[in-house]
Design brief:
Number of helices: 2
Helix content: 10-25%
Protein name: Molecular chaperone IbpA
Order of helices and strands: HHEEEEEEEEE
Mean pLDDT: 80
Structural class: mainly beta
Number of strands: 9
Low-confidence stretches: none
Strand order of the largest sheet: 1-2-7-6
Pfam families: HSP20
Family: Belongs to the small heat shock protein (HSP20) family.
Strand content: 35-45%
Largest sheet: 4 strands, antiparallel
Distance between the termini: 37 Å
Keywords: Stress response
Number of domains: 2
Organism: Herminiimonas fonticola
């Protein structure tokens, strides 16, 4: 596997250090947890869904929190008092913690647990000040917001 040195980017680009850090972290994919399995889906142009298989977990055992640009999902199984004797144990019931880096203006709008699948809905909401605007020539202060149309 190739490794890339992003040091030149740190030296010559101002404000892109977060992007370089994301590339750097992506190279260390082995450190990323593979449990529980999950999907990331593009639902529409500005809507996303993370679906995570959390069979055996109750709603009270899962925490979802966002802090700035990070979404963190944590599952903590409660200890069972009764000792069980498994002949085969194929359903994992271990604790987990998984983090996702969110792009600017992406926020969590909802989550639901259904049939062992945790669905987290996300949306990208671009503020009005950052949306494209049309400037009318010789129109003075006449500035119109452009409507973004999907191709």
């Amino acid at each position: 596997m190739r490794t890339y040195d992003f040091a030149p980017l740190y030296r010559s680009a101002i404000g892109f250090d977060r992007l370089a850090q994301l590339f750097d972290d992506a190279q260390r994919a082995d450190a990323q947890p593979s449990y529980p399995p999950y999907n990331i889906e593009l639902v529409s142009e500005d809507k996303y869904r993370i679906t995570m298989a959390v069979a055996g977990f109750d709603r009270s055992e899962i925490e979802i929190e966002t802090e700035r640009d990070t979404l963190k999902i944590t599952g903590r199984k409660t200890r069972e008092d009764a000792q069980r004797n498994f002949l085969h144990r194929g359903i994992a019931s271990r604790n987990f913690e998984h983090s996702f880096q969110l792009a600017d203006h992406v926020r969590v709008v909802g989550a639901k647990l259904d049939n062992g699948l945790l669905n987290i809905e996300l949306t990208r909401e671009i503020p009005e000040a950052l949306k494209p605007r049309r400037i009318v020539i010789d129109g003075g202060d006449n500035v119109q917001a452009l409507e973004h149309k999907a191709a």
